Amino acid sequence: MQESSLSLRQLLALVFAGMTAAALRQLPRQSAAAAQGAGAWLSAVVVLPVVLVLCWAVTGALRGMPKGCGYGETLRGVLGPWLGGGLTIIYMVWTVLILGSGLSQCGERLKVLGYNGWGRAVFLLLALLLAVKMAMGRVHSFARAVEIFFLALTAALVLVVLLAAFRVEPGNLLPVGGGALKGGLPALEVACAGVPAAFLTGWVRKSPEESGRRKLIRWTVWAVVVLTAVQAVCIGAFGWQVTALQRLPLFEAAKQVGVTGAFQRVEALVAALLVMSDVALFGLTLLSLRGQSQALWHGITPDRIIPAAAVLGAGIAFFMSRSQTVVRFLGELLLPCMSIVLGFAVPLIVILVKKIREHFGWTVTSCAGNKPETEDIVAEKKDAKSKEKNQKKC
Length: 394
Known about the structure:
With about 400 residues, the protein is mainly alpha-helical. The chain has helices at about 10-35, 45, 50-60, 70-80, 80-110, 115-135, 140-165, 180, 185-190, 210-240, 240-245, 250-255, 265-295, 300-320, 325-360, 375-394. Helix 13 packs across helix 14 (about 300-320).
């Protein structure tokens, strides 16, 4: 088995494990604040058709490309080397901003959990170093670890939802009204923020054709079901007014559940899993940056780009922790706009351009020359060179 390759299931587990951290930070609280009504718990369901269109656009853009070509090579192949390369650089900036925002919000979560200033800083530093170490190492090993963690995270979320369901007040969930439509934008932002992971598709062992699209749709629908249940128990237990004011609604809901004589303090388990989800998000963004950089400079090594990205992300998190102006600018203006434009509009434009080129018989530029040199390719080249030297000696 190639250590630098991924199965499609591992890639999806990596994406959904990382995006769970962002989803649980935004959806219960921000969807309730945006919806201003009891229908906020259906915000993820409302945007599901739009998210499925996004899945179709991303997988459609990758369809028919040579094996080993990811989203970065596809951009250059469809839009040309200059425009595609420029967009890849913009995607890299966006990914670094996602990393910095994730670090800042993880710090806020640790503050809610009771960590003091130095404790939060040390914890975030260790989490970032762990993500850097795993992202610079064997991709397959990182994906296997996250795959196992994702199963534990899903089981814990289902357990909390089932236990917290007994505290749901139906009056807090009805009437739905038009609030679900208003609360759909935060859910769409979370979905679009997962698009940078498409730059890792070049490492998938099997090309993401029809079977890959169906699997992506199944995972997306399942994620929407789980997130809708999480929002339902949070808003159903506290009401949308209180949920909109809470920093961690799921954590507060977990405080209310437990089985007398069996186990208590379920929130401790939830807190640990959410922090691990943050680490998965850090690793996902760093791996995405690794894929983006290799799409532009296929000879670059991970030890050059990943530490630099981690330092930039930590700097962004530092400024966000010091200035509310920076928080409002990044969190409420720049990142949402970039999520909609780069995460939704650009994939639609790429698939549209590709369809037009195919319709008129214009060939899509092959990305075979731009494929990143993975660890296995580098090893094969070294073996070939050593064999040539041995043959010359003989």
